[in-house]
From TrEMBL:
<dbReference type="Pfam" id="PF01548">
    <property type="entry name" value="DEDD_Tnp_IS110"/>
</dbReference>
<dbReference type="InterPro" id="IPR047650">
    <property type="entry name" value="Transpos_IS110"/>
</dbReference>
<feature type="domain" description="Transposase IS110-like N-terminal">
    <location>
        <begin position="6"/>
        <end position="146"/>
    </location>
</feature>
<keyword id="KW-0175">Coiled coil</keyword>
<dbReference type="InterPro" id="IPR003346">
    <property type="entry name" value="Transposase_20"/>
</dbReference>
<dbReference type="Pfam" id="PF02371">
    <property type="entry name" value="Transposase_20"/>
</dbReference>
<feature type="coiled-coil region">
    <location>
        <begin position="180"/>
        <end position="207"/>
    </location>
</feature>
<feature type="domain" description="Transposase IS116/IS110/IS902 C-terminal">
    <location>
        <begin position="212"/>
        <end position="288"/>
    </location>
</feature>
<dbReference type="InterPro" id="IPR002525">
    <property type="entry name" value="Transp_IS110-like_N"/>
</dbReference>
<protein>
    <submittedName>
        <fullName>IS110 family transposase</fullName>
    </submittedName>
</protein>
Length: 339
C-alpha cells in the first residue's frame, strides 16, 4: 500500500520521517542523516509532505518540490496539539504527519530563494540599526559619567559629538576622549553601511511593480514594501485582508465564552519585523492624514480623538494591512479616495 502523507521533522544532521497510507495506518518510520534525505524522497512516489516552519524549512520544501511532492509548512504552535505523548523526534514527526492532513489547518507559503535573499538584506540592515543604536547609547552613557549629556537621537548625537570631543576644557580625560572618538568613527561606519543597504532596497523597490504599488499608500516606503513582497509572496494565499491582518498580529486578542465576546490587546502573532514596520509607517501616516480630507483620513482622526494617538496608530496599521493585501492580491493601484 502506497504512502500518501509524510511528516518530516527537521534538524541539523538527523531527520525523522513518519508516513501513513490511505487507511491512515503507519507505513513508514525512519531516521535519516542529512545526506540521505534527498535520495530517500527522490525514490518515493509523490505525496503530501508536512514540515514545521522553522530554520531551513523553506530550503527543504523547495528541494522536495523538485521531486513532485506537495510540501506544506505549518507553524510549530499548530502542530504541538497533535503530539500524543512526550516530545521527541519520532513523536514530532508523527504529529506533523497528522497535522498536515487536517482540512482546516493553516499553512505557511513556501518562499523562493529570491524572496529569502531580499529578507537576508533586511535582516542584516536591521542588525546594523540595532548595533548603531547600541553604539550611540554607549557613547552617551560614557559621556554622562563626566557630566556631559547629549541628546538621544542619532542625528543630534552626530551633530553635537564633534564639539564635545574638540573641547579641551570640558574635563574629559585624554584616554576617554580617544576611546569615544573611536566609537564615533565606528558609528559613522555603521551609518555608511546602513545607507548602502537603503540604496539597495530602494533599487529593489523600483524594479518591483508590486512594491511600487504598495508605496502609493501613505506611510509605506521602500523598506516596508520590499519586506512585504518578500515575506508574503502570493497574497491570494490569504482568504481576505482581515485574515492577513490577523496573520500579522494586528487584531485584538479574544477571550470569549458563553456568548460574551471579550477583546483585549493585539495578539502580536506572526512576523514581528513586518508588524513593526507597519506600526511605524502608520504613525507617520496618521500625521499625514491629518492634512487630508479623505474618508480614510476622517476615520483615522475620529479614532484618534476617541481613543488617543497610540491606539489610533495600531488601528490604522491594521487598516493599512487590509489595504496592502488588496493591492497585492488584486494587483490594483491605490485609490486614496476609496481608502
Amino acid at each position: 500500500m502506497s504512502i500518501v502523507r509524510i511528516g518530516l521533522d527537521l534538524a541539523k544532521q538527523v531527520f525523522h520521517v513518519h508516513g501513513v497510507n490511505e487507511r491512515e495506518q503507519p507505513e513508514l518510520r525512519k531516521k535519516l542523516n542529512r545526506g540521505q534525505v534527498l535520495d530517500f524522497f527522490a525514490r518515493l512516489e509523490p505525496s503530501l509532505v508536512g514540515i514545521e516552519a522553522c530554520g531551513s524549512a523553506h530550503y527543504w520544501a523547495r528541494e522536495l518540490q523538485k521531486f513532485g511532492h506537495e510540501v506544506r509548512l505549518m507553524a510549530p504552535q499548530f502542530v504541538a496539539p497533535y503530539r500524543k505523548d512526550q516530545k521527541n523526534d519520532d513523536n514530532d514527526a508523527e504529529a506533523i504527519c497528522e497535522a498536515v492532513g487536517r482540512p482546516n489547518m493553516r499553512f505557511v507559503p513556501v518562499k523562493s530563494a529570491e524572496q529569502q535573499a531580499i529578507l537576508t538584506l533586511h535582516r542584516v540592515r536591521a542588525q546594523l540599526i540595532e548595533e548603531r543604536t547600541s553604539v550611540g547609547n554607549q557613547i552617551r552613557g560614557l559621556l554622562n559619567e563626566y557630566g556631559l549629556v547629549l541628546p538621544k537621537s542619532i542625528p543630534r548625537l552626530r551633530r553635537d559629538l564633534p564639539a564635545v570631543l574638540e573641547d579641551a576644557e570640558n574635563g574629559l580625560p585624554d584616554l576617554a576622549r580617544d576611546t569615544i572618538a573611536d566609537l564615533a568613527e565606528r558609528l559613522g561606519e555603521l551609518e555608511e553601511r546602513i545607507k548602502r543597504y537603503d540604496k539597495r532596497i530602494e533599487r529593489l523597490a523600483d524594479d518591483s511593480g508590486t512594491a511600487s504599488r504598495l508605496m502609493q499608500v501613505e506611510g509605506i516606503g521602500p523598506v516596508t514594501a520590499t519586506a512585504l513582497v518578500a515575506t508574503v509572496g502570493d497574497a491570494r494565499y490569504f482568504k481576505n485582508g482581515r485574515q492577513f491582518a490577523a496573520w500579522l498580529g494586528l487584531v485584538p486578542r479574544q477571550f470569549s465564552t458563553g456568548g460574551k465576546p471579550r477583546h483585549g490587546r493585539i495578539t502580536k502573532r506572526g512576523d514581528r519585523y513586518l508588524r513593526t514596520l507597519l506600526v511605524h509607517g502608520a504613525r507617520t501616516a496618521l500625521c499625514q492624514l491629518s492634512r487630508l480630507n479623505t474618508a480614510k483620513a476622517q476615520w483615522a482622526q475620529g479614532v484618534r480623538q476617541r481613543r488617543g494617538f497610540n491606539k489610533a496608530t495600531i488601528a490604522l496599521a491594521a487598516k493599512q494591512a487590509r489595504i496592502l493585501w488588496a493591492l497585492m492580491a488584486r494587483e490594483a493601484d491605490y485609490e486614496p479616495a476609496k481608502g
